[in-house]
Amino acid sequence: MRLKAGVKKDGTLTALEFSCTATGGAYPAGGTSLIDWLVRDLYLRPNVKTEMKDVYINAGPARPFRAPGHPQGAWALEQMMDTLAQKIDMDPVAFRLRNVPSYSQGRAGNPPYTTTGLAECLIEGAKAFGWEEARTHIRKSKGEGHLKRGVGMASGLWFAGGGNPPSTAVVKLFSDGSVNLNMGVSDIGTGTKTVMTMIVSEELGVKPNMIQIEHADTGTTQYATPSGGSKTVPTDGPAVRAAALSVKQQLLSFAAADLKADDMSLTLSGDEVVSVKDPSFKVKIRDVTGLKKRGVIVGVGYRGPNPEGKVVNPFAAQFCEVEVNIMTAEVRVIRLLGCHDSGRVMNRLTYDNQVFGGITMGIGLAMTEARILDRGQTGKMMNRNWHDYKLPTSLDVPDEMISLPIDKPDDAANTIGAKGLGEPVTIPTAPAIANAVYNAVGIRMTGTPITPLRLCPALERGGKEETP
Amino acid sequence: MISGFSYMKVKTIQDAVSGLAKGSARIHAGGTDLLGCLQDHVFSSDMVVSISGLKELKGTRETPEGGLSVGALNTITDISESPVIRDRYPALAQAAAQVASPQLRNQGTIGGNLCQKPRCWYYRGEFHCLRKGGDRCYAVAGESYYHCIFGGDGCYIVHPSDTAPALVAYGAAVNIIGPVGMRTVSLDHFYVSPSKDVTKETVLEPGEIVTGIVLPPPVKGLKSSYRKVRARRSWDFALAGVALSLQISEGKVTNARIVLSGAAPIPWLAFDAEKALTGSILDSDSIKRTAALTVNRALPLKHNAYKIPLFIGMIEEELINISKA
């Protein structure tokens, strides 16, 4: 990757020029994918030029595995932003805040984002991390000792994460007050079932333990799109809510017949249908005649279209502190804070787990993982087992890993107000770490992972920059 | 895919010796390296002889001279958590604590750790390399980040053990039993460098088994430690490691052992550095000089020259720690 940038002394970004070459392996696949997207879209930039080249090589195919192209692009762009901020003597957070767009410049016609929490992520994240205090403290404490501390930050957005039709869900309310939720969408460990249960529970007032789920079975559930792109919650959540809403409407009109009231004057409260005006005027769900006679109410929900002419994207800013041993080039990530705008927080536990998982993957890119081919010889992959391909272990992630959500419901995006989370988390982590390493020892890391293999020679030369 | 083999769990060490005499029999203790080797086709075996049930190879006991005898079947965790070893041979306990991952330390044995096969990714991969009877070492023209900077001669592996350098630094020996009886070999003569025989890592003959380790009594004024730098903080072999064992008397180093891991096909004795340090006071000058001398004869390959400043920095840091202790 090569990146050239122009900035004014007041912090206005004027131009970005980016080019990159990637290996697609022996087959057309995802070598470059969306590597230039953040350059085109993340910050206000009056002028931009990007060029991407995929090269066929005699090796296995390249495939993206998380937020295609974004972590790589962020690695270049966010380190460039750090460098620019330093050149104009501006705080990296303040510099980014000067250049926050409200619309997507990478798309034709510059359509607005439904919401952008980029500024909030930067401001709230910096506050919670103690960014300015940490920078001051590190500036003042440089000197003796071979363990150098540094702090760094980076931001990002994810190209997708808004979700889209189609999605279909079926909710059944039984006469005993229990519920069955039937949907095609899968739960690959992200907590989909938890989130969908909460949507039904919120809409129908039924306790989560009364909701049974059947899902991801091609024989018994509806067509669904794959879990990918960090779009499952905003894609399938609205369909589930619509199905629950349909059940609710049918139930209220049955209850209206029992109570001889207008169904618009009724609402659900716990296991009862009550009058909005007079809560003593009510009937228990299991006593609603229409439901008792039929035994079940079936509601079908469909995912509606996305808002026309608008873009739904999640945003992020991450902050980290590292310690570099300048004698051995060992780098320890001391703490990492992820501040994310993914719209409404649906469930705090599954939300935080996505943040911790995403950051761990980002640490993998920054610190341990690489695909090593036998260059110039056989082209075979040398590290094709779980020992040689080094995923971070629990000792490689910091004790202090913090998830700070910007809980900002995006009502224009869809009927549940949530945007995707997962991939956006893994985008800014590696450059935040690289910026922290620079802050600690003044060496600009251009390649990953940051191990003694790269850092040791740079430290030995007292170098400013890693030689690629 | 592992090809089929018979499994024999022996009740006596003699049964193990005779079991190993047959065909392509292989010994099993913790099995952590054996299974990987079979899986990766480093070698094949028609018979696996398990010594894991032999009680006499477990435990530790004091020798009449005041040293320590350690059975080969002690797990790595046993070694790292033994109060006696932590107290009297701290470098060994530290080395054991940095081996692999907690699961592997609970399963793998100290005997196995000393006799494990190299971790070179060409040797473990689908490459018919010199050590496997082929005609070349692929690391020379290939990906040599994790290979040796000393002692390579045709083959450029590094010795994978953390405990071996610590044991060499303490002057330990291994007890061996085999078809022709028992023998004891000093650990610094136990390993075979590629210049002697590129297909062997140890002096063990077919059918021979390591039954235990004997550590001499710790001398007065001994300061020792093991330091390891790796690319990942757990479950990783050394990029560079050092076992230090310094005898200090009236502020002067009277005897020094500096043994490197991640450096050479065998635990590597840094003779020049040892010589320079012996007779010196441990101060910043002697520390700098010693650290530089550990790598003065290094011959790096294409990708592993980073190990030179890494060894220097790591040894300097560790000598400073010892001088302050």
How would you describe what is shown here?
The complex is a heterodimer of chains A (468) and B (325). Chain A has helices at 37-41, 70-87, 92-97, 118-129, 131-141, 192-204, 232-259, 289-294, 348-368, 423-426, 429-441, 452-460, and strands at residues 2-7, 13-25, 47-56, 147-157, 168-174, 179-183, 211-215, 266-269, 272-275, 282-284, 296-302, 315-325, 330-341, 400-405. The longest helix of chain A is centred in the middle third of the chain and has 28 residues, at 232-259. Chain A starts with a strand and ends in an 8-residue tail after the last helix. In chain A, a hairpin with a 6-residue loop joins strand 9 and strand 10. Chain A is α+β, with helices and mostly antiparallel strands and 468 residues long. Among the domains of chain B are: 1-51, Uridine Diphospho-n-acetylenolpyruvylglucosamine Reductase, domain 2; 222-324, CO dehydrogenase flavoprotein, C-terminal domain (Enolase-like, domain 1, 2-Layer Sandwich), CATH 3.30.390. Helices cover 29% and strands 21% of the residues of chain B. Chain B has helices at residues 13-20, 32-39, 76-81, 83-88, 90-97, 102-107, 110-115, 121-124, 163-169, 271-277, 284-294, 307-324; strands at residues 6-9, 26-28, 47-50, 60-62, 68-71, 173-178, 181-186, 209-215, 222-229, 240-249, 252-261, 268-269. In chain B, the strands form 3 sheets. A 5-stranded antiparallel sheet of chain B has the order 4-5-8-6-7. A 4-stranded antiparallel sheet of chain B has the order 9-10-11-12, sandwiched between helices. The longest helix of chain B is centred in the C-terminal third of the chain and has 18 residues, at 307-324. In chain B, 51% of the residues are buried. The model of chain B has no long low-confidence stretch (mean pLDDT 96). Chain A binds chain B through residues 146, 325-330, 367-368, 372-378, 380, 382-384, 387-388, 390, 392-396, 449, 451-454, 456-457, 459-460, and chain B through 101, 121-122, 125-127, 138, 141-143, 145, 229, 231-236, 239-240, 303, 305-306, 309-310, 313-314, 316-317.
